[in-house]
Amino acid sequence: MQMFDRIRNIRYVLVLFAMLIAIGSLLMSNYLISDLEEEERNRMEVWAEAMRSLNAADENTDMNLVLKVINGNHTIPVIIVDKDGKALSSRNIGKSFMENEDSVAYLSALAREYRQSGRFIRIDMPQEYNSNDFITICYDESLILKRLAIYPYIQLGVVVLFVLIAIFAIFSAMRAEQNKLWVGLSKETAHQLGTPISSLTAWLQVLQDTYPDDVLLPEMEKDVKRLEHIADRFSKIGSIPDPKPEDVLEVMDRVVAYMRKRTSNKVVITTHYPKDPVIVSLISSLFEWVAENLCKNAVDAMDGEGSIDIVVDEDDEWVYVDVKDTGKGISGSFDSVFKPGFTTKARGWGLGLSLAKRIVEDYHKGKIFVVDSEVGVGTTFRVELPKAPAEV
Known about the structure:
alpha+beta; 8 helices; 18% strand
């Protein structure tokens, strides 16, 4: 569990790091935009002063300097309108207004938008023209400023993408590590079981030769074969065995027969099957373990007293196996029961349902989930398996 806590902490650190980068980027960009807006405002005031000098030019006016200032604006869109709001001239607007049937009306409307945004400078005409006459220089943000305004959001998107990729990589590494852990644990368990099983088989043969009429020896033989079956299950974890078409009803009958022998009479197991065989591509030894695990959990949830209903149903594409008990029920999120370490038992590793989920999803391409659960009433688990393709 410490490994999962470390992974979770790394994820939180990455999210915090991304938030700090995003906030810093937005603040820095905001400062830059504010400075650039102020700079463009100053440039337009200089430009307006040049226009005022041009309108009031005399023999002492340095026209070269005035024209240089006026012609030096290559980035800021400008529209000059009269006191009635009619466009007189424009600069750096682009060619869109040329395609308009009434370019003057288009520029006048655009100038009104600039004024509503507060980007305008009024120039009073010289008194010798008309003391009440004036023009207004309306301007917009430059293309550079507009690009800079959207840059923080682009950077934020890149940061978010980086965090998502990092989280995905962490989870992939964690899942790969978990898979290695499962495979190593399973292989080692199968290996460790092999030696005592071989010894038990040999001793059982000795007992059968010595006491051929002993009625307990057949039961011992069944238990030894059961151990061999369990070891075979663990040995298959991590390998890629080929699923074979199996009648899921026969598989569930074997599970029910096994459970009935190993539970008290206070646990009633009933089955509800279709009349015809239900063929599914199965690794039968592994799927039996999944079904047994669900039934054992049901028995534990009922404290050894209650009923278990096993329902098998199908449609055109899927086969459904429901295991319903009358136990304690599940409180909280249903998804948490499949996480490693989750257990309601005083003693247990909490790995059964997690491994069952891997067997169903990774080896059988199916699904396992909690259909319904109510505290004090019971729980229903469902396994969905894709139907075996019809033989041609």
